């Protein structure tokens, strides 16, 4: 495989020395990061598509409860959480290119299992069991895919641009979710639900093809690895802040469609789209803020905005108020991952970067795995809107944690 001279120099300089000094032109950065962004976007389209149709399918067609909806949605994130340590170790020891390939193959497998579940949709328990299996496989694939993408990007461009790498990967992630959910709803109504799951397989192939020309990263086999639990301890302050901030996102992704249906507010796709567009535009226009102003300041302001958005959804009397709440949640949540992530990866050696990123993201997974079932219980006991009071309180807890860990 041939690489340009520019790209080779960039890779050698940033990997071998990791001296935090960049001589790389912006054009080379774009040539490296755009294929990774395309890959991540395709992967998160598959996640967004399942979020768009599974809650309604489980509740309305298979006739299960809101709690089971939360369990089904949360299982993918729990699966991702439980495999983060493996994903980090594989990425650090075998390279992100291999872990990315394995992740993509698992998405293809999950798509096949989803299709089989649809075939057995008249047998509700069998279909539910297959969907649960597919969610678990999909979760493992996400763990491998995003850990490898972040490690690959930072390894190729250097840690001095780690915030930018995380920011643009985040744009791809939530653009995929924001576009995938309404796209899946439209595809289901137009072509049937099977077309949605077949598209997961097609998107997996696109994800693989987009990064096939990127070079591998060298692996330092002689490096003495820090145990995963110690890495978790080092980044726990940033991780817990991320975990509580992610609950607001989990509440929207899991239950906003059911809230809109209960209130007869029209097409819930608008909620996903407005959240996603707010999230993306914030990252596009303010992507340099974590590196420029520091992760701590950016996180505090972001959490206040997100809390306000969650409260607005909780108190909303109209569809417009709820959509505005989704927009504020997107703006607030947008920069929290890179803001706290920049602080987290500075606490480990370059050879442990994949493990640190996996551990940091594991807090996000834990949040989403727990938030779905808890939100389902809240909906059953109170109402769908009460879920977003839970989201607002969680943002305030995150604010307290970030403030407490300012100098740690």
From TrEMBL:
Any single Pfam family the record assigns to this protein: MFS_1
GO molecular function: transmembrane transporter activity
PROSITE patterns per the UniProt record, alphabetical: MFS
Keyword annotations of the record: Membrane, Transmembrane, Transmembrane helix
Parts of the chain that traverse the membrane: 32-58, 64-83, 104-134, 140-158, 165-185, 191-210, 231-262, 268-286, 298-315, 321-345, 357-379, 385-403
Sequence ranges assigned to domain Major facilitator superfamily (MFS) profile in this UniProt record: 32-408
Gene3D superfamilies in the cross-refs: MFS general substrate transporter like domains (1.20.1250.20)
InterPro entries linked: MFS, MFS_dom, MFS_Exporter, MFS_trans_sf
Alphabetized NCBIfam families for the sequence: PRK05122.1, PRK12382.1
Alphabetical list of PANTHER family matching this protein: QUINOLENE RESISTANCE PROTEIN NORA
Protein name: Predicted arabinose efflux permease, MFS family
Species assigned in the record: Pedobacter caeni
UniProt lineage: Bacteria, Pseudomonadati, Bacteroidota, Sphingobacteriia, Sphingobacteriales
